[in-house]
Amino acid sequence: MSSFDSILKYIKENLRLPIELYLKLASYIRDILGFDTAGHGWLHIDRVSRLAIKIALKEGGDLDVIILAALLHDIAILREIDEGIDHAEESAKIAYSILRNYNVPDDIIEKVVYSIRVHRFGAGIPPNTIEAKILQDADRLDALGAVGIARAFTYGGFRKLPMYIPGEKPEVYDPFKLKSTLTHFYEKILRLKDGMNTETARQIAEDRHRFVLVFLDRLLHEVEGEV
Ligand SMILES: [Fe+2]
Prior knowledge:
Layout lengths: L2 H12 L4 H15 L8 H18 L3 H10 L4 H7 L3 H15 L4 H12 L12 H12 L3 H14 L22 H7 L11 H25 L4
Helix pairs in contact: 2-4, 3-4, 3-8, 4-7, 4-8, 6-7, 7-8, 8-11, 9-11
């Protein structure tokens, strides 16, 4: 069986909620987040949802919870960017009311809300359900590799950060105190690999992490005028 067939079979056998609900929800989220310039828009949600399904295929978990959590985990991200509120807490609250409106069963809503609440990198809360672990892993994987590099510089431009500051040293990660995009790599991106919850994500992270190291090595050599 091809991997496409096995993904379809897995989704068909494991999804309890109707596919129409997901299509409607995805289109609603796409309209809200759009193609943003901060690296957190619909395209991030689309990639994280697919990564989460890929991880779930190997690691298990409740597929409805995993997909709903992936779709809704950053629904309040624009409020964090604009107003500085905790987007994980706020997204969890919004997810709760949206899913109630869609008549999603309470047991699913409860697990989705928990997964969203603990997904944030800066919160440092270790997730204790497989669904929350998968969401956190998928979200962190999207900050690694070529996509992670592209997102970091997109976000840096959005925040009007310089590419790098000569002599700058990394500090404790705080998204609101970032000084340059380059320090973002040392304060957050290079630390992601060791925080993966699942073996499947760990393997993808190793590969993406190596790519980031190759990129940084080349960047620093070019910056120093050595190549
Ligand atoms: Fe995210």
